[in-house]
Amino acid sequence: MSVYLYRWGKFAFRRKWIVIAAWIIALFVIGGVGGSLAKPFQDSFTMPDLPSERATKILDEHFPGASAGFDQNAVNGTYVIAASNGEKLTDPSNAAALQAFVTKLGELNIIDKTTPLMNPVDITKKIGERAGIDCLASDRSNPAFAANCSSAPLNVLNKEHPDTVATMQVKYTIPKYADLTAADREAAYKVGDDARAAGLQVELIGSITQDPGGSSGASEMIGIAVALVVMVIAFGAIVAAFVPILTALVGVGTAISVIMFGTHWLTVPTFTPILASMIGLALSIDYAMFIVSRYKHELAVSNSPEEAAGTAVGTAGSAVIFAGLTVIIALAGLTFVKVSFLTSMGIFGAVSAAMAVLVAVTLMPALMGAFGRFLFKPKLPLVAQHDPEDDTSVTNGQRFARLIGKAPALTLGISVVLLGLLAAPAVNLQLGLPGGDSMPQNTTIRKAYDLQTAGFGEGSNGTLMVAVDLSKTPENQRTEALDALRDKLAHYPGMDYLTVAQHSQDGQAAMFMGVPHSGPNNKETKDLVKDARNAESDLKAQYGMEYGITGTTAIFADVSQALLVKIIPYLAIVAGAAFILLLLVFRSILVPLTAALGFLLSMAATFGATVLIFQDGKFGLVEPHPLVSFLPIMLIGLVFGLAMDYQVFLVTRMREEYVHGKSAKEAMISGYHHGARVVTSAAIIMISVFSAFMLEDNVVAKSMGFAMAAGVFFDAFIVRMILIPSLLALLGDSAWWIPKWLDRILPDIDVEGAKLAELKQSSAPSEDKEHATIG
User: Fold this and answer.
1) Which of 35, 216, 330, 374 is deepest in the core (most CB within 10 A)?
2) Predicted confidence (pLDDT) per residue in 616-628, tens digit
3) Which long-range contacts (CB under 8 A, 24 or more apart) does 653-656 make?
4) In degrees rounded to 5, what are phi and psi of residue 460?
5) Cα-Cα-Cα-Cα dihedral of 331, 336, 340, 346, to 10°?
């Protein structure tokens, strides 16, 4: 591999303008095609074989159209209207404003006019008339009141502030979410402006409000700015620091264009472009910096800049390819989880990682040739004075490695204890999916959620739909069976109230709503769903009835549980594949094994820190919420790949020194001396890029950015730079042991560039002897 990359590096350096022009043309072509075919991003949390699908099947069979509200592709919306403090919606002035709003809403061209819209107050009256109850009466002590009026869209059951909040669920004519436009979203919200001017608060929640736009761009700019400063310090020159930024912009731009292209055929989650930006920026900059660092050294010892570029790509480029492969394997491995939205994010995340590798090994040598002798000018005084590639200089990395070598058992123990303490909060990990409560407080979605919570209770934001199949229940027992089910559910402590059952036209099914006390992501609500489902066996044995539970709450609980049980199999698949890859790179059994075990410690510490900040709300940095369900798997995939990057960057130099005759401890120190600066710089860049995403309004971006930044910090600075070197020093020669039979059958991929050295030595007489200087 090193020989092929060496030859490509020289070609790209020599034919720089052709390579650069080819990349520019490719970027514009891919970007143009992707932009022309792009469709809106869309979140879909549906998964195959979820327990909630049983209820959907019953609804589809006996209540056609009733399950449409749970269709992730449908455009839906619920208006939440509230009167001013101390007033009611039934007051004459508010009632008139509410009716005017309903009339204006009905005239909106995106509203389905098949069924005329009705005022929530009028609907509440009709519900009471059908049951023979006055749902607007001041005396609500009648026991039948709660049972019959609980489905009213006016908060008649609120004892402290009744008749102050109402909801209106509306149907839109927009066929599917992919057809939703910004103008539609704006019209749906602005239709309430007159009502707001009249003193009502009108907010909107549902898929109609969801903006498929990605990152604001501020986080990327912060990450790039920090990366630029880090590279200026690492290289001691300004121009060289800008080159990795150029490759990063090209890599990210190409990856995002491919993602846009993919939206034409696939349902791509809204978080995908944010994730691609995170991966693309961080990896592109890291890989480019790794190659430029090697190029800087090769300029001082090679016969020409072209030769230096070829050698840098042949050696550092080989490590970049294998480091990138670990990231790609980890992300592509998400397809084995068999969850549609994770599959999409994994595939396109792998695309972003592949682009980062591609631009590093193809575009970077061309840019080296384009900047020529100006690449490392002007040199900055007092910055990067000691070259880590110079064995005669003493760097801070070398000093720290010697400290580890003197007391490896102590440094190992300290790092393990520290990571263990950080991991402790992870035992309380709770998972959920982002809802209205996770949105910023200034958004209409969050305001609608809070209004509905105040008026109807937190559980009203995630009601349970109970669909009952009575086809196997004797007709004379169906009413009794249904009553037994409702009584059973009503006695659970987590249930707030149940609506009156609605029977199907064929009489073989029924459905009703259950409103929990707590919100969709609360543990109490998930326990309620579990208990309600567990009660089916007894009722089925007694009456022959079957039922399913669906709705936002049930679906959230199902998805969270399904993802939770897939973490271990996914980790095994990814770790196994990476172990084989690292076995090829290091030709050792214990080095890949310790690399994987160290990752488990860094992951545990990352989960603990993320739970502490985001779930428990410590330090008041964010509102406490359960961690998004797909965060653990995504975090494992991303950080595992990055962790193996640092393992490859740092430990390959240690192996190179060991193979060349140094003792295990001296090889560790020397390899640390060569690789510590680039790993430190790469980790700081990663952390800055990921941390900047905490500035996004999207709570998923915030938590994912923090978790990945924390994961990189713990893995790079504690595991890779303390724990692993300590283990290598303690294990000695046994760290590099491999059975002879295995060594014989493993392919020689030549990451260290031994074949490249042989090639250069054999062709030395014909090379240009002009010696290059850094200037």
Assistant:
1) 330
2) 888 877 778 888 8
3) 654/728, 655/586, 655/587, 655/588, 655/591, 655/736, 655/752, 656/752
4) -65, -15
5) 0
CA 693/CA 704 separation, integer angstroms: 8
Could you tell me if residue 393 is left (phi over 0), alpha (psi between -120 and 50 degrees) or otherwise beta? beta
- Report the chain's mean pLDDT, rounded to a whole number: 85
Q: Note whether 612 and 542 are within 8 A (CB).
A: no
Asked whether the beta carbons of 589 and 738 are under 8 A apart, the reply is yes
Instruction: Tell the burial category of 17 from Cβ atoms under 10 Å away from its Cβ (0-12, 13-18, 19+).
Output: exposed
Report the pLDDT value the prediction gives residue 768, as an integer from 0 to 100. Answer: 46
Least reliable range by pLDDT among 45-49, 298-302, 591-595: 45-49
The dihedral formed by the CA atoms of 627, 630, 632 and 636, expressed in degrees to the nearest 10: -150
| Local confidence band at 767 (pLDDT 50, 70, 90 cut-offs) | very low
Buried b or exposed e, range 601-639, using 16+ CB within 10 angstroms? bbbbbbbbbbbbbbbeeeeeebeebbbbbbbbbbbbbbb
Rounded-to-integer distance, Cα 166 and Cα 81, Å: 5
264 has pLDDT over 90:
no
Q: Using the 8-state DSSP alphabet, how is residue 520 labeled?
A: T
Rounded to the nearest 5°, which phi and psi values hold at 543? -120, -10
- β partners of residue 467: 511, 548
In this predicted structure, the answer to whether residue 85 has a pLDDT above a threshold of 80 is yes
CA distance 124 to 158: 14
Model confidence at 31: pLDDT above 90: no
Q: Residue 508's closest CA among 67, 61, 148? A: 61
Strand-by-strand arrangement of the 76-82 sheet: 165-171, 76-82, 201-205
CA–CA gap between residue 250 and residue 254 (Å, rounded): 6
Amino acid at site 374: F
Asked whether the beta carbons of 522 and 528 are under 8 A apart, the reply is no
Residue 78 DSSP code: E
pLDDT tens digit sequence for 168-217: 999 888 887 777 888 999 999 999 999 999 999 999 998 888 775 545 55
Residue 770, pLDDT score: 44
pTM here is: 0.78
- Among 85-99, 387-401, 696-710, top mean pLDDT goes to 85-99
Q: Are 95 and 102 in contact (CB under 8 A)?
A: no
Q: How far apart are CA 547 and CA 541, in angstroms?
A: 13
Per the rule left: phi > 0, alpha: psi between -120 and 50, beta: everything else, 163 is left
pLDDT at 259: 87
The percent of residues in the chain predicted with pLDDT above 70, rounded, is 91
DSSP E strands in 183-315: the ranges are: 201-205
Residue 143: its H or E element: helix 143-149
- pLDDT category at 758 given cuts 50, 70, 90 is low
Q: Say whether 316 sits in a helix, a strand or coil.
A: helix
Q: Which amino acid is at 257?
A: S
> Which of 326, 253, 315, 313 lies closest to 284 in space, CA to CA?
253
The H or E element spanning position 400 is: helix 396-406
As a three-state string, the secondary structure of 582-614 is HHHHHCCCHHHHHHHHHHHHHHHHHHHHHHHHH
Q: What domains sit in the chain, N to C, each tagged with a CATH number?
A: 1-38+219-231+238-260+270-365+373-382 (1.20.1640.10), 76-173+181-209 (no CATH), 403-443+563-750 (1.20.1640.10), 464-550 (3.30.70.100)
pLDDT score of 771: 43
> What letters, b where the CB count within 10 A reaches 16 and e where it falls short, cover 128-144?
beebebbbbeeebeeee
Contacts (Cβ under 8 Å, ≥6 apart) of 557: 525, 526, 529, 530
